[in-house]
Amino acid sequence: MGAVVDVRSSKDLQAAIANDKPIVLHFWARWCEPCSHMDSVLTQLASDLPGITCARVEAEVVDELTVKFDVTTVPYFVFLRSGEVSDRLEGADPPALTAKATALARTGAATSTSTPPAPAPPPPPAVTAATGGAAPAAAPAPAADPGSSAAVFGRIKYLLSSWPVVVFMKGVAEAPRCGFSGRVVEALRKLGVAFKSVDILQDEAIRQGLKEYSNWPTYPQLYVKGELVGGCDIVTEMAASGELEALLREKLGADFRGVAAAAVAGAAGTAPPPPTSTSAPPPPAATTTNPAAAAAPESSEAVRERIRSLLGGPQPVMLFMKGTPDAPRCGFSRRVVEALKAEGVEFGSFDILQDEAIRQGLKEYSNWPTYPQLYVRGELVGGCDIVTEMRAAGELGSSINEMLHRMDVA
C-alpha cells in the first residue's frame, strides 16, 4: 500500500524528485479541518496510484517551500513532473484532486481535462458544531450528492430547524477562531442564551453554501428561529441597544433563555444548563510598559507584558508576521501585507521569527495557533484567511476604520 511522504525541507523534496516519479505536493496546516479531509483523499490516491509520489508539506513550518511555490492558502496542491510545476489546485476539491492525480499518473502531467477519475473518495463528514462542550449532532445524510447545492441547503435547513438559536462561525463557542465570532458569542452569553455553534472552518460545503443560502457574504452569521439576524456589527449594535434581547423575546417568548437551553440540552441528551452571563474574556488592555528585550529564561507573565506593550504601541494596527512587510517570509504573511497595503492601511509589524518567546507566547495570549495575526488597538481581527475574505468582500478597510473609531469613542 502506498504511503504519503512528509517533506520537511528542500532537501527532502529533491530526494523525492530524484525518484523520477511525478509528485503531488499537498500544502496543509494543522488548524485547517479541510486539510485533514484532503489528506485522507491523498492517502487513498497514494495507494491507488503507485506511479506517483504523494507528499505533504506543512505550509507554516516549511517556509522555504511555501514561498518557492507561492502558496498563500491551504489546502493547496502542486503537481510536479521532473521537478517542474505542471499544474496547481486550490481548495478542498476531492474530485478535482482525484482527476488531476490520475492524469498525472497516466501521462506524467496533471491536466484539467475530463480524464476519468479514480474511484471517488468518501464524502466529507457531516457538519460538526459545539455548544457548551456537548457532543455535536449530525444532520441526516442526504440522499443527493453531498456537495450539491440541494444537499448543502438541506443540511443548513436541518440545523436551523433543530435549534432556535444558531451561530455559523469560525471556531466553536469555547474557542472562537476570529475576533468577530468571539464578539457574537460574547453578546449571546451576556444575555444567558444557549445556542448551537457551527464551525464553518470544518465544512467547506457549508461555508460556501451558506453564503448563497443567506445572501450574506461573511461570517459569523446569527440565526433565530431560522431567520438571519446578521453578522458581528449588527449583533453587537443590537446587543448594546437592547434590541437583541427584544428580538429573542419576540421570537422565542418571555422565557427565551429556557427555550434555547432546553433545545440545546435536548439535542445533547442532558439536563438544561443554567443561564450564564460569563463570556470569553477579551484580550487584556494594552499598557504603556516599555517592551523588554527578549531574555532567557523569561516568565510567561513577562512575555505577556511585552505582548501588551507591542499591542499598545504607537501603531494602532499591528501585524505579527513571518518576516517584514518589505520581505515577508511566508505566503500567508505576504498576502495579508498586500491586502493591508491595497486598502491604504498604515500598520506596524513584528517579525515573530526573530523572537521565539513572542512567537509561542502570542499563540496562548490570543488563543490563535497560527501566523500572521492582525490586531487593531489590541483586539484580534484574525489571520490570513479572514483578512483576505474581508478584502474580497470589500470590508477590510471599513472594518478596521470602524474598529478604530469605536475604540476612540469608547
Portion of residues in helices?
Answer: 40-55%
Q: Runs with pLDDT <50, length 5+?
A: 109-145, 268-296
Outline the biggest β-sheet: 5 strands, mixed
Task: Assign the CATH class of the largest domain.
Answer: Alpha Beta
Widest β-sheet, arrangement of strands: 1-3-2-4-5
Structural class: alpha+beta
The total beta strand count reads 18
Give the helix tally: 15
What is the radius of gyration computed over CA atoms, rounded to a whole number of angstroms? Answer: 23 Å
Which percent range describes the beta-strand content? 15-25%
Mean pLDDT: 80
C-alpha termini separation: 61 Å
CATH architecture of the largest domain: 3-Layer(aba) Sandwich
Shape verdict? globular
As for the CATH topology of the largest domain, it is Glutaredoxin
CATH homologous superfamily of the largest domain, by name?
A: Glutaredoxin
What is the number of independent domains? Answer: 3
Keywords: Iron, Iron-sulfur, Metal-binding
Protein name: Thioredoxin domain-containing protein
Pfam family, one: Thioredoxin
GO molecular function: iron-sulfur cluster binding; metal ion binding
Tell me briefly what this model is:
This is Thioredoxin domain-containing protein. The chain folds into three domains: 103 residues, Glutaredoxin, CATH 3.40.30; 140 residues, Glutaredoxin (3-Layer(aba) Sandwich); 110 residues, Glutaredoxin (3-Layer(aba) Sandwich), CATH 3.40.30. Helices cover 42% and strands 17% of the residues.
